[in-house]
C-alpha cells in the first residue's frame, strides 16, 4: 500500500469516528499540514465544513456554532502557532461547557526537537483547559490501527459531549506528501462500526440485541451483588458469561451452568465457528484471560458489540464497540430482565456442555491432588470460608486461579490489583483488605520480596491475613511467556531473578507464624484453620511446573473436543 | 489570632470538609510537616486513623481498605519524596477506579525554589494519574477562607467518589511551629455546613427543603426549555427566581411575576432582613449581577443551600452549598413539581411587589426614551423577533442588559461568552451563533476592535447578523469600576484606552452596510428591519453616561422603598 493510500484510509477512519459520535460540523483554517484532513472532510457530504482563515476567529466561530444546540463542532488547523490561536476559545469552551473537538495536525515525530521549521511540541498543548487529549500514531493501515483511530475519534468526541460538556484535543502527526488519494473508500473494517449511539434509559432500545445469540464478557472487580445480577441476566438470556476470578462470578453465592469459568482452557484448545455469537455484551475492561481476548479480537465484522460503562470511559481495548450504554450495572440488568428471554436453547446448551467438559477434565487432573503451586491456588480459593476474602497477586497467581477456579456455593470476595498489574504493593493492599474480613493472599516470591515492609503493617495491626507464598525463587511468570525461549544465561539473570532468600527469616523478623506444609492435606488443614492474626504458608514450587501441567491439559482438551 | 489558632481552625475546617463528603478512614505516615493534620485527624472520633511508616506500603494499604467497600480513604504524608512513594498506588487506584484522597503537606511558598531542605515542587505531582488536584492556600482564618478550605476538601472527595471513582490530590502548605492548639473547636462558620449529601433520585429527600421560604438563583446559559421549567417551578413554589439575561428567564415565552429581573436595582438599593430566604436553590454558577452575589454571601449561617449540577462540578463561588443534587435540570424540576406547593403567599407577594416597583421605575426612566448606550441595549432585546437570537458582549453590554431587561412575551434566545468573560472573540462567536438564526450582537468598541477578523467570516458567510456597536471610544466598563477614582492621566492611558478608529472604514473594508441612527426611533426602525446578511449599527455613547444614569436610578429606588 502506498503512503497516500495508507494516510487516506487512516484519515477516512478518523472521520468515521467523528461522525459516529455525532460530529456534523467542522471549521477548517487553511494550512499545509492539515491538507489531507481538510480535503477529506470537505468532500464528506455528512459534514458541513466552513473555512475560517484566522484561527482565533475560527475557534470562536466554532464555539458560537456549538453554543446554539450544544452539539460538538470539529476544529482543524495546521501545525505551529496556528494551534495556539485556538487557546482563548478553548478556555471559554471549558468554562462555559461547550463541546469542541480540536484536531491539530502536526509534523511527524522525526521532525520534532531537531530544529525543523514550524515544529513545536503540540502534546498537551492546552493543558488542563481540555477534558481530554490524545496523541495519534503516524498513519498506519492495518485493520487494528484503522479501528484504533476510529475509536479514538469517537471516544474523544463522546468525552466532549458527556456532562460537563467541554473541549477535547487530538493531535495527529502526518508525513509528506500530504495530498490524499480521492479514489479510496472508507475501509470495510471500520465501516461496520458506524452505529447509532444509544443513550436512553429505555430497555426497548437495546432489547433487539438481547433477542439474538449473545455472550456476556465481564472484566474488572465486581461486587458480589453485581456478579449475582450478571449471572441472573445470563441465565435469563441463555447466554454464556465469561469473566475472570476478580469479577466474582465464581463465588457470588450462585452456581450457574452458563458461567464459562474455564474459558482459558476452552479457547486455548480452540472452538469452531458455531461458537461465534451475534452479539457481545461487555462490562468493563477485558478479563485477564488472554485466549479470550484473542478469540474476541477475531470475531467476524458483523458481530454487534454493546458496552455498558457507567463512568463513560469506554475502555474498549478491542476498539470494536458499536453501542455505548452509560448505565450502572444494576440499572442495566434490572431494565433488561423485564424483556429478557432465552432466544436459542441450542446455543445455551452448546456452551453449557463445553464448560461441563472442561470442568470434568480439570477436576480429574491428577496433579491437583498433589501439593504444587497450581493445587495450592486451587485450594486457597475452594477453602475460603463464607464471607471470607481472597487477594490474588499478579503474574502466576491470578492466571492459575483463572485457569483452575471452581464454582463455590457460598459467598466469598476476590480482589486483585489489576488496574496496572504491579507487583510493588501486593502485601500492603492485602493488609488493607484484611482490615474488613479474614483474607487469604496468594502471592509469588517476587511480589512478596517487593513489599516486605507491608508485613510490618500486618504485624502491628494483627490483621487476619493468611499469606500463601508460592516460592519458586524467581519470576515464574516468565516461564509462561516468550522469554523462556532465550538462552539460559540471558534468561536466568534478566528474568528468572532468583532472590535466594530464606523467607522463614522474614517471618521471624516480623514475628509472623510460618508454615511449610509437606503435602496437600497439610495445606488444606492449615487453610481450614481460622487465624486471628497474620501467618505465612510457604508452598515450594518448581519453576516450569505450572507450564507443563497447563500445556498437557490444553492438549488433552483439544483431543477431547476434536473427537466430537 | 495566633499562628497556632489560625492553623488549627484551618485544619479543623479541612477535616470537616472531608467528613462531610464521606471520609471515615485515614492512613497517616509519620513526618514533621504533616504534624498538625496528623494530630487533629487522630483525635477526631469520626475518623479511624491507621499509622503506616513506609509511604509506598501506606498507599497500597489505603488502596486495600478503599477496595472493600469503595469508600474514600484519606492518605496523609509529609513533604518531599514521601509524597512520591504514593505514586505506584495512585496509578493503580486511577486504573482500577478506587477512591483515594491524597493529602500531601508542603513547605510554604517562601521556602520553595530557594534551596530549602525537603522542599520540592509538589504541585501537580501526580500529573494525569489523579482525577483532580488542588493547591490550598497557606492557613488563614477569615470566615470565607475557612469555608474555602472546607469546600475544597469536600469537593475533591466528592470528585474521588463520582463515577469513574479514582484518586485526587490536595497539597497543603504549612508554616512552623507545627503543633496545633488542641483547645480549639470547629469554627462555627463551618459547622453549619455539615449536612448529609443527598444523592438519590427521589424527590421526597429534598421536599422538606421545598416546603420552606425559598429563592431560586440561576446562572450560566440555559436553554429556553430549561428556563421555562425553572419559571414553572418558581411559580409552583411561590419562590422568587433570580437569573441574568443569559439564563433566558426573560424571554422563554412566559411572563412570570416571580421572576426578579431587576435584581440589581433591588439589591443595589438594599433589602431588609425579611427578604432573607430559609433556603436557596441554585442552578449553576452565580448570575453576573454583583449585588446579588454580595447579598447572598451575607445571608445568615442558618440558610440552607441546595445546589443542582448534573455535571457534578459544584462551582459554588460562595462555598456555602450544603446539599448537592447531581441531576439534570429537567429531571429535578419534574420530580419536584409533583410535590411543590406555595408555602407562604406573603413571601411570594412581597417579592412580586418589589419587582413590580422596580419595573415601574425602569419603564418610567426618561433616558430610555432617548438614544444612548443604555436605551440601545434595552431596545435590542425588546425588539427581537420571535425565535431570533441575541448575543451580548462582556463588560458594559451584559451589565446594561441585566439592569434594564424587560420580559418578552415571545421566545428569543440570549447568548454570551461568560465562561471566562473574554472580549477577544465576541464577533466570531456571534457569527457562529448566527449560522442558525437571525442574530443581534450588542458589543462595545473594544471587543469589536479585538475581533475585527471575525467580520471577514460574517461577510464571506453572509450571516444574518446585526451588530449594535456601542462606541464610547474606549473601555467604558472602567468608569463603573474603582479605577475611575484614579488621576485622569493614569486612567486615560491605562484604562480608557481610546482607539480613535472610524468604524465606518472597517465596515467599508468588509463591505458591510453601516448605519448611525440619529435618534431612538431610527434605531428601532433599523432593528425592526429584517436583514439577510451582516450589518453594523453604531450607537455613539458618552464615556460616563451609563454610570450616571444607573446611580441616579438606584438612589431614586432607595428613596421609594425607604418610604414604605
From TrEMBL, chains A, B:
Span of domain Thiamine pyrophosphate enzyme TPP-binding: 428-539
GO MF term list: 2-succinyl-5-enolpyruvyl-6-hydroxy-3-cyclohexene-1-carboxylic-acid synthase activity; magnesium ion binding; manganese ion binding; thiamine pyrophosphate binding
GO biological process: menaquinone biosynthetic process
Role description: Catalyzes the thiamine diphosphate-dependent decarboxylation of 2-oxoglutarate and the subsequent addition of the resulting succinic semialdehyde-thiamine pyrophosphate anion to isochorismate to yield 2-succinyl-5-enolpyruvyl-6-hydroxy-3-cyclohexene-1-carboxylate (SEPHCHC).
Source organism phylogeny: Bacteria, Bacillati, Bacillota, Bacilli, Lactobacillales
UniProt cofactor note: Binds 1 thiamine pyrophosphate per subunit.
Pfam family, one: TPP_enzyme_C
Reaction catalysed by this enzyme: isochorismate + 2-oxoglutarate + H(+) = 5-enolpyruvoyl-6-hydroxy-2-succinyl-cyclohex-3-ene-1-carboxylate + CO2
Pathway field: Quinol/quinone metabolism; menaquinone biosynthesis; Quinol/quinone metabolism; 1,4-dihydroxy-2-naphthoate biosynthesis; 1,4-dihydroxy-2-naphthoate from chorismate: step 2/7
Protein family (similarity comment): Belongs to the TPP enzyme family. MenD subfamily.
Cofactor(s) in the UniProt record: thiamine diphosphate; Mg(2+); Mn(2+)
EC code: 2.2.1.9
Entry keywords, A to Z: Magnesium, Manganese, Menaquinone biosynthesis, Metal-binding, Thiamine pyrophosphate, Transferase
Record organism: Enterococcus sulfureus ATCC 49903
Stored InterPro entries: MenaQ_synth_MenD, MenD_middle, THDP-binding, Thiamin_PyroP_enz_TPP-bd_dom, TPP_enzyme_TPP-bd
UniProt KW Membrane keyword: no
Subunit structure: Homodimer.
Stated name of the protein: 2-succinyl-5-enolpyruvyl-6-hydroxy-3-cyclohexene-1-carboxylate synthase
Start and end residues of each Thiamine pyrophosphate enzyme N-terminal TPP-binding domain: 14-124
Domain Menaquinone biosynthesis protein MenD middle: from-to ranges: 195-392
Amino acid at each position: 500500500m502506498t503512503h497516500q493510500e495508507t494516510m487516506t484510509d487512516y484519515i477516512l477512519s478518523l472521520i468515521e469516528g467523528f461522525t459516529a459520535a455525532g460530529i456534523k460540523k467542522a471549521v477548517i483554517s487553511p494550512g499545509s499540514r492539515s491538507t489531507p484532513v481538510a480535503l477529506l472532510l470537505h468532500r464528506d457530504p455528512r459534514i458541513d465544513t466552513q473555512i475560517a482563515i484566522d484561527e482565533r476567529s475560527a475557534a470562536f466561530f466554532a464555539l458560537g456554532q456549538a453554543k446554539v444546540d450544544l452539539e460538538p463542532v470539529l476544529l482543524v488547523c495546521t501545525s505551529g502557532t496556528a494551534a495556539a490561536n485556538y487557546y482563548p476559545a478553548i478556555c471559554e469552551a471549558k468554562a462555559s461547557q461547550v463541546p469542541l473537538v480540536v484536531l491539530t495536525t502536526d509534523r511527524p515525530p522525526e521532525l520534532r526537537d531537531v530544529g525543523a521549521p514550524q515544529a513545536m511540541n503540540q502534546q498537551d498543548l492546552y493543558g488542563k483547559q481540555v477534558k481530554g487529549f490524545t496523541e495519534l500514531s503516524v498513519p498506519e493501515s492495518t485493520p487494528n490501527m484503522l479501528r484504533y483511530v476510529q475509536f479514538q475519534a469517537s471516544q474523544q468526541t463522546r468525552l466532549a459531549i458527556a456532562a460537563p460538556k467541554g473541549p477535547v484535543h487530538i493531535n495527529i502527526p502526518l508525513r509528506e506528501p500530504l495530498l490524499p488519494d480521492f479514489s479510496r473508500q472508507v475501509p470495510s473494517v471500520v465501516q461496520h462500526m458506524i452505529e447509532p449511539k444509544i443513550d436512553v434509559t429505555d430497555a426497548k432500545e437495546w432489547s433487539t440485541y438481547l433477542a439474538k445469540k449473545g455472550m456476556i464478557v465481564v472484566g474488572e472487580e465486581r461486587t458480589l451483588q453485581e456478579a449475582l445480577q450478571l449471572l441472573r441476566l445470563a441465565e435469563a438470556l441463555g447466554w454464556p458469561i465469561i469473566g475472570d476470578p476478580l469479577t466474582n462470578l465464581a463465588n457470588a453465592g450462585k452456581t450457574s451452568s452458563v458461567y464459562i469459568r474455564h474459558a482459558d482452557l476452552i479457547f486455548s484448545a480452540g472452538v469452531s465457528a458455531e461458537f461465534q455469537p451475534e452479539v457481545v455484551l461487555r462490562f468493563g475492561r477485558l478479563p485477564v484471560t488472554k485466549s479470550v481476548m484473542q478469540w474476541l479480537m477475531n470475531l467476524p465484522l458483523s458481530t454487534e458489540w454493546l458496552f455498558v460503562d457507567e463512568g463513560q470511559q469506554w475502555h474498549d481495548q478491542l476498539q470494536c464497540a458499536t453501542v455505548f450504554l452509560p448505565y450502572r450495572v444494576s440499572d442495566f440488568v434490572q431494565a433488561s430482565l423485564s424483556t429478557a428471554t432465552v432466544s436459542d436453547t441450542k446455543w445455551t446448551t452448546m456452551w453449557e456442555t463445553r464448560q461441563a467438559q472442561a470442568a470434568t477434565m480439570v477436576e480429574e487432573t491428577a496433579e491437583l491432588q498433589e501439593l504444587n503451586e497450581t493445587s495450592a491456588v486451587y485450594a486457597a480459593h475452594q477453602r475460603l470460608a463464607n464471607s471470607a476474602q481472597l487477594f490474588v497477586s499478579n503474574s502466576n497467581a491470578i492466571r492459575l486461579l483463572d485457569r483452575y477456579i471452581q464454582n463455590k456455593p457460598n459467598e466469598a470476595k476476590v480482589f486483585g490489583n489489576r488496574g496496572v498489574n504491579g507487583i510493588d504493593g501486593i502485601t500492603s493492599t492485602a493488609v488493607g483488605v484484611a482490615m474488613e474480613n479474614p483474607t487469604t493472599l496468594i502471592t509469588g516470591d517476587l511480589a512478596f520480596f517487593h513489599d516486605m515492609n507491608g508485613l510490618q503493617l500486618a504485624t502491628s495491626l494483627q490483621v487476619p491475613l493468611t499469606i500463601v507464598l508460592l516460592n519458586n525463587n524467581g519470576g515464574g511468570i516468565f516461564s509462561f511467556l516468550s522469554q523462556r525461549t532465550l538462552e539460559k544465561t540471558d534468561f536466568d539473570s534478566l528474568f528468572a531473578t532468583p532472590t535466594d532468600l530464606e523467607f522463614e527469616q522474614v517471618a521471624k523478623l516480623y514475628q509472623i507464624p510460618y508454615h511449610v506444609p509437606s503435602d496437600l492435606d497439610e495445606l488444606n488443614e492449615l487453610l481450614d484453620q481460622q487465624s486471628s492474626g497474620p501467618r505465612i504458608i510457604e508452598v515450594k514450587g518448581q519453576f516450569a511446573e505450572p507450564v507443563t501441567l497447563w500445556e498437557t491439559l490444553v492438549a488433552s482438551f483439544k483431543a477431547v473436543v476434536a473427537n466430537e
